[in-house]
Amino acid sequence: MLQSDSASYCCCMTDQGTWERVDHYVEGKLLAPDATLDAASAAGTAAGLPAIAVSPMQGRLLELLARSIGARSVLEIGTLAGYSTIFLGRAVGAGGRVISLEFEPRHAQVARSSINAAGLDEVVEVRVGRALDLLPGLLDEGIGPFDLVFIDADKESNADYVDWAIRLAHPGSVIIVDNVVRGGAVADPNDPSSGARGNRRMFDLLEGNEKLDATAIQTVGSKGYDGFVFALVR
Ligand code: SAH
Ligand code: DHB
Ligand code: MG
Questions:
Q1: Is-contact 92 74, C-beta < 8 A?
Q2: The model scores a pTM over 0.90
Q3: Residues enclosing ligand 2, CB less than 6 A?
Q4: 103 C-alpha to center of ligand 1: Å?
């Protein structure tokens, strides 16, 4: 390839249409037709839930990361329609456990129905309430430690969720936080949105944190320009 071709891919073809085309292309290559996941997504849409679930390739990454560490117990904060939950439930498999926390009873109801249709009733438990109200109960009940925690709820509370994830983790646990870039807003100190402020508070908590090692990866795709934190508990 000529250097100029390469440069054109770096500077000109980086737009939402391209990102969607590429996601569509790689999904076709890497994800076998999956009626269960398609139905879970459609159920969320039909119930009027917001279209903010992880993309198919992001869900697949969650599944593969969980399988990579042999995760048997997963905590998810933010269930929505259960789309990411199904990837995580499949990753831990029979005998594994996923606890997913969801504030909206209607979301939980839709999710439970799709989790049931996915054959994951025995694996996944959806608990309804504000996550910050439910998390102490997990500790009190002696549930956990969790091998993987996926944080994907209100971004305002991300710092608190990371704090709780550490408390509910063991050395070697993985913590993943979705939506930490938000189109670049995280790095704009003047951005007043509560999500950007919440994520900056989370990065303040990660900064120099002696309990974990972390990286943040910017992403583009069908969900636009965003990113995630991947942390490994020491
Ligand atoms: N993980 C899902 C998407 C979650 S969207 C997926 O990828 O498929 C975020 C969800 O977090 C929404 O359903 C929202 O109702 C829920 N949520 C928002 N604030 C919350 C809170 N304080 N506690 C628990 N859930 C919350
Ligand atoms: C929003 C939430 C998400 O979890 C996400 O992945 C994308 C958007 C939102 O609240 O706008
Ligand atoms: Mg998200």
A1: yes
A2: yes
A3: 52, 152, 178-179
A4: 7
